[in-house]
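Lab meeting minutes (informal)
Scribe: AK
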Amino acid sequence: MVLIQNFKRELTKYYPFSKDVLDAFIAILNPRTLKKGDYFLKQGQVPKSYAFIKQGLFSYYHTYENGDVVIKKFFSENSFIASTAALIQNEASLFSIQALEETKLLEYQNTDFRQIMKKYPEIAYFHINYLEKNWVVAKEPLEINLKYKTAKIRYEQFQTEYAAIESRLKQHQIASYLGITPTQLSRIKKAIKK
């Protein structure tokens, strides 16, 4: 029941829902557990679902042909996860979504979600507001930061944005997110401590 309460609370941050709409949304949810290292989605797969994270931590990353990994984002408790662009276009994802810890999810299929979105405009408004806030507005500063700001400044911003989960991440994961090597990250941490 707490899981559903957290889900409801997150939904209503983006749009107010009537009881009927909440009930319809809850009806399409399926609980799922993933172990550390399991994939919610592998790069190259066509995604079929979204999920709400009750417990756990995920990395959202792309692996290049030479094996280099670039982490675009981390998702933790009370976040929604999906390869959104691939879902919208019904094509293979450019990203993998991997559990960094044991996780508990509420998963919902894209086909079910689209059906209730057509029936209930509130769900469409929720989806639009969620996408605008998390994938449009939040994305622009990241794009500028990667091209303009120093690695030290990017790390300091990372510490602010991901303060609640930094201790749960490994150094190479943080470095991959910042677009630097773990050695560079070590140097930055030492310089900040001085």
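Next up, CB showed the second protein from the same session:
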Amino acid sequence: MEAVKFLDAKGLACPMPIVRVKKVINEMESGQILEVHATDKGSKSDLTAWTKSGGHELLKIDEENGVFKFWIKKA
């Protein structure tokens, strides 16, 4: 999966991962993919809900060594 932007949100607590994701997504074009890495356990449910409410598509979630990796396609 080829992301056009990458956001490192590791070490950030709620609500900062979503705040940062929103800022980056707003700079992207429709259909582009953002890859996000976060360590906040709440980011999994938060980003899932946020992408759905914003009409974006959560393509994939992975977890590796305590890091959650998200691929979000902008609506």
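CB comment: The helical segments are 16-26, 43-53.
No objections, moving on.
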